[in-house]
Amino acid sequence: MLFSDAFAQNPEEAEGYFLFPIHPGRQNFLSGSMGEIRPNHFHGGIDIKTDQVTGLPVYAAADGYISKIEVSSYGYGYMLYLTHPNGLTTTYGHLESFAPAIAQYVLEMQYAKQAFDVKLTPAKDQFVFKRGDIIAKSGNTGGSAGPHLHFEVRDAKNNLQNPLKYGFTEIQDNVAPEVVSVALKTMSIESRINQLFGRQVFQAIKTGSNAFILKDTIRANGLLGLEFNAFDRYTGAWNKNGVQQVDVLIGGKPHYTHLIDNVPFDYQRMVSWHVNYEVLKLTGKDFQKCYIDDGNTLPLYNTGPHKGKLKINPGATYPVTMQFQDSYHNTSTLQFVIQGEKPIVNHTFAATGKKKQISYEVAEAILKISAADTGSTPKNINLFIRNKRYDLIPSYTVQSTAVYLYDLRGGLPDSMVFNGSARKFNFRQAIPNNTDYSYADNHLALQFYPFTLFDTLYLRSNYENGVWTLNDVTTPLFQPLKVTIKPEVPVTDKTTAGAVWLGWGKSRAFINGVWKDDQFTFTTRNLGKYTIMNDTKPPIVRLLSKSAALVRFKVGDDLSGLASYRAEINGQFLLLKYEHKAALLYSEKLDKSVPLKGDLTLWVKDAVGHETIFRTKI
């Protein structure tokens, strides 16, 4: 192994230092483990099941003081940060309520700030707890998909540590990870996998309790990227969790290791570059890379000379062993063989004629063109770059389909001609990462910042029928991109108009921004399709109940979403708590002895400024 002892205990990591925060002393179960792959981040702690209910006591894991309190309808919901004498901080998320003294302090601050969402940093000696004190009740607030406690351990640099390395006996695990499949991906223009360029998936076959193999020898050439899809389970639980550590050995020698621990909090979104993001978005399957792509600066890896990529030479044999380990050292092994094989141009033709057609895709910096033809000899493709013609010869053929490979670093092609038919590309520019970079044309302007891109982006853009297309949704961004779009038809009512990201299926997301003349500027973390839409409807407010103790509303908005709300009783601020999952606003009085009585007014605004005013008498 490249890490001599991946789970070595530091003095402050001694077993027994932390108390398990839910039902300490009895077996517990997890719905989420450290480092699991989420849509745009690593899971930063463990999710502790709470018997599908809320309101369980949450215990302080160790002596400490409350260093931060957060309240939001999104993210972690109600959350506490408890800082300990050893410099570590434990966090407790999705809480239903805080301990009484904390709850009163938060309520007073919410009334002082006249806001539900607050981030508070109380004095160091204001809320001090001993190990085992009840600090909160478990809940389902924020972005939680069900009742549980989200529990983290962070160091002084805000790195997320694996809580399970602290030896919690409440979580039992004698089950080794399950390997589902591995994938190999060509990483250079001369690379081949079973004589093909691209990505191929191979299903793992279980041969023993913790042993897996691939059925056949893989024949390959050139630089390859290895990926895997695997999961882990805990004793007595059926839900799938993440794998903690992966080692790759070639011929018995260490080649690559990653250990998902000590993840910098601000780098969690880099999970989009740790996994095959395109495959995750298209299939929902999280294939983790066993190589480090350019632009990945996570401190989780230990690799050889090619950053984990496999360099396969013709005639050589490469026995591959992959070891998959969970937090309790249960280990599974996958073994297979890669045989180096020289690429060949395989002129094979289908027995029956194929319809003439041509398609292309972009894989990293390689343009792959596939052209089906009925001729007995594959034809060249005429590639045009700045009005200069280049003849692109087939790299190989498969059943009357010729495959052509072109390295985009040689210049971005404008169009191609095949068999008398012309086709235009929509390549615009090669955008480097790690720098400020601007691009503009007649329809849009883009501002890239040093951390917008993970790697060089071969920008493709198009404007048609009021829709702007920027590459596609399977290309991840690390930090935001500034976009200015220029509609051909001027928007008449700019006060209610904004950009709408047309995501997966029928999903859409409204993005507010700034109009200047007839151009709209906004920031985004998503590529794909955008359009301009008007939000013409004000928010909806419906009274659910009212009494001297409590008032409840159902709220919603058609497109742009709620931006703000405020309630007053007899002209005085009344705190309304917001649960976005239930689209619910409900009141909490500062002085519980004073009944709600008199004139109540609720103002609700959406993101474009539409306001709904609701009045009632209690």
TrEMBL record:
Domain M23ase beta-sheet core residues, every copy: 42-104, 125-159
One MF term in the entry's GO annotations: metalloendopeptidase activity
Stored InterPro entries: Cell_wall_metabolism_enzyme, Dup_hybrid_motif, M23ase_b-sheet_dom
TM segment ranges: none
Pfam families per UniProt: Peptidase_M23 (PF01551)
Superkingdom, natural source: Bacteria
CDD domains: M23_peptidase
Protein name as it appears in the record: M23ase beta-sheet core domain-containing protein
